[in-house]
Each structure stands twice: as structure tokens, then as C-alpha cells.
Amino acid sequence: MDVHGRLYIAGEWTPAADGALFGTRDPADGQALGTCAEAGRADVDAAVDAARRALDDPSWAGLTAAERARLLWRVAELIERDAAELAELETRDQGQPLAVARGVSVAGAAEHFRYYAGWATKIEGSVAPVSFPGTLHFTRREPVGVCALITPWNFPLMIAAWKMAPALACGNTVVVKPAEQTPLTTLHLVRLCEEAGFPPGAVNLLTGGPGTGRALVGHPGVDKVSFTGSTEVGREIVRASADDLKRVTLELGGKAPSIVARDADIDAAVQGNVQGALLNSGQVCAAYARFYVDRRRAQEFTEKLAAAVAGLRLGPGLSPDTQLGPLVTEEHLNRVDALVRRGVAEGAELVTGGGRAGEGPLEHGNFYRPTVFAGVVDEMAIARQEVFGPVLPVLTYEDEDELAARANDTPFGLAAAVWTRDLSTAHRLAEDIRAGAVFVNMPAVPDPAAPWGGFRSSGWGREMGSYALDVFTETKGVWIHHG
């Protein structure tokens, strides 16, 4: 069944109540890809009502943990069955190179469903030795309820999976709202959930823009919101959730520092930082985005970094030799370029890149040349604001004792990196840097088994690992007095 132009509510694919539609385009060439339904308030009401009913329906609420696990495992199998189709769809809708779509997005989505299939039968309570005589106290982990899962445009398939899988493993029902720029693989994923046998109302899908998201977040029938996206929108969600005190999990922006110590293997640091900074053209919230390099190694590092990024092949994600794909939209490209122009105006030295790549086969796409700046200082916008693009500012330091304070001088705290051969340097900086994840001598690579989330303005709560079970369950204490 062609599900384009349809929502998925209560087990049925249906147009928007008012018939509204919007289109999505390939960022590599601007060509139209598909048409999606624009969910309005009536559709939000219908989806939330369906999810609410399913919470008490024996077809979902009555499933054993083992039966929920089998459903999740089946989704993982179906993702792998459709891996080639999903990867191509993700590349065409989002722009990421096909190798990234296959090896990161599709593979990661399958692994998240399989990982949480394993957890479904291991969500346990505990017994506490309370002080009341003749009393047994134990805890139950119960579903939070109806969960609104709002996903971003940079890794739409994988992030949908890492929200849906734990929410469903815990017995919740979900209403998924993908970013309007990249809805197509989420449509396919929900179709696979239907094929796997999830009962009506357990999984619902709303496509649409910010208005759809606001209506969903503000709906009194929603018990929890899980959002990945910008810090600005995260703050708006907190305000909208305040009246009824919804549970909220937020994974927001970042400005990850990458520290290159004096003793670092510079060639390895360059290679790792190129990977950590330019995966998905830098459209990664944990992308390495400001590089602190020992002044005595800075020239070598900067020259090798510039040579490495200048040699990357830009092109459509479906081209087998593409290493760097387009930015997701023209609007986003213009924002990245404005920050680059500001970096030049503030006195940073433009070493390579610094403009749109628009010649030949790139003419109609949103391609931006990978850009390296030298001579950057902490106060510059390119060192402080999240660019979310292929921009690499190099800063220098004299004394390692200043590094933690400079790395922490930011409202963000999602990820950080340290490049060193000295174990004490690695441990000291990992302890001192305030970030949700610190990667030593490697790019930022999330894993289903490890917690993911940020300090400060980078978010609330943690996703992945057993930590996701905490945010998708409520703990109930039961007291039984036996005389």
C-alpha cells in the first residue's frame, strides 16, 4: 500500500481530516519526492484518543512481556529485510551518503528494536525492607501512558527507532511525529510495525509541521513527550507541558569540544576529527564543533585538517563515491553560510572552504564546502553557536589547566572528545568536562547499550541503555500488611 499522503491512526491509514498536504524534496537536486498528510488538530485528537484507548485494550495491555519482545524483534527483522529500500529512501529524503544510511541509520534502527526486545522481559521491580512490622513492600514498573515522540530531520529513521523501541518495550502507546523535512522513512517504519502485528492504537503516526507538533505537545491526553531537536524548541515544549506536568525527555543542541593534547597522534586526531565533525555533513548534534589544539601542534593539525576536508568528494548521497552529501534544505544552508560570513567578519582566518558548492552536478543541490577556520577565539560566534554544518573552527591553548574551563564555557553539554596518549590526561579531562558523553581517541558513536543525553541546555534525561526504561516507566510502590 502506498502510504504517502496518509496518517496512521488506530490501525488505519487515513488522509488528514481537512485533506491538507505538504511535499518533501531531495536535497541533492531539489526534485519532489513525495506528498504527506498535514495533520491538524482533529487528527491529533484522533491519534491521541486511539493511543489512550489502546492503553486499556487487552490486545495491547494484555500482552505478556515476551509477546511484546517478539513484536519488537519482528520489526528489527523487517527493517533488515527492507534495508536497501530504507537506505535509499533515507538518502533521497535526508541527503546522507548511502553508506551512512546503510551502516548507521538502517543498521542502528534494527539494533535498537532488537536491543529493547531483549529488555522487555527484564523490566523488574524490587522489594524494600520497610520498617513497618508485618508489611511487604515491593515496586512495579508501569507504563507512563501515551507518549508523543517527536523526531528531527538529521537521522529520522534511527532516532525514531531509539524512541519507539523502548517506549513500546515498556508497554506504552505512541504517537510519532517526524520532522516535516524528512518524513518518508518514518512512514515506512510505521508500516513495518503494522506488518509486525502491533494492535490498533499502539503505534500512531502524524506527519506535519510545527503546528502539528504544538498541538500534540499541548494535548491533555498525552502523558509524556520525548523530543530531539533544537534547544529553542525544547524550551517551548517545556513551557507547553507545564500546565499538566507532562513527563518530558529532551535531547537538544550541542557544541562539542574536541581537545587535541600536545602528545596526541596528530594524524589519528585529524582522521578522527574529520569523521566526528563531518558525519552527515556536520548535521549531528554531537558533531565535534570546536577544536582546542596545543599551540605547538596547531599549525600541523590545521594544515592536515584542511587538506583532509578539502579532498572530500561532495555529491548526491546515492552516488557511490560521495563522501559528503548536501545540507537538508536551502534555508539551513543559508543559516550555515551566514555563520561562516560572520566568522570572517569577526576576524577568523578562513583556511579552506567557506562557500556553497554549486557547479556541475551540484548546481541544484544544497551543497556546502567543508570549511576550516584558524585563529578562532572563544568569543566568536562560530566557537559558541551551534552551526550544524561542515564548519570546523580551530582554537589554540597554552596550558592544559585552562582546557576544562574553556570547554565548559558554553550553555551546551552533549558530547566532547579528547585526543591523547596519556591515560591521566584522558581521565582528568573526562572527569572535568561537563558533557553527557566524552569520547577518547574516537568519533562520537552512540550505541543502544550506552546512555545518550546532555547536561544543561543540551537536554533533560537519557535515552538508550537501561536509562530509557527509567523515562518510559513510572515506579509504583505497593504496601501489603499481613497482620
From TrEMBL:
Residues 13-477 form the Aldehyde dehydrogenase domain. SUPFAM superfamilies: ALDH-like. InterPro entries: Ald_DH/histidinol_DH, Ald_DH_C, Ald_DH_CS_CYS, Ald_DH_CS_GLU, Ald_DH_N, Aldehyde_DH_dom. Belongs to the aldehyde dehydrogenase family. The keyword Oxidoreductase applies. It comes from the Bacteria. Gene3D superfamilies: Aldehyde Dehydrogenase, Chain A, domain 1, Aldehyde Dehydrogenase, Chain A, domain 2. It comes from Streptomyces sanyensis. Keywords: Oxidoreductase. The active site is at residue 251. It holds the Pfam family Aldedh. This is Aldehyde dehydrogenase DhaS. The keyword NADP does not apply.
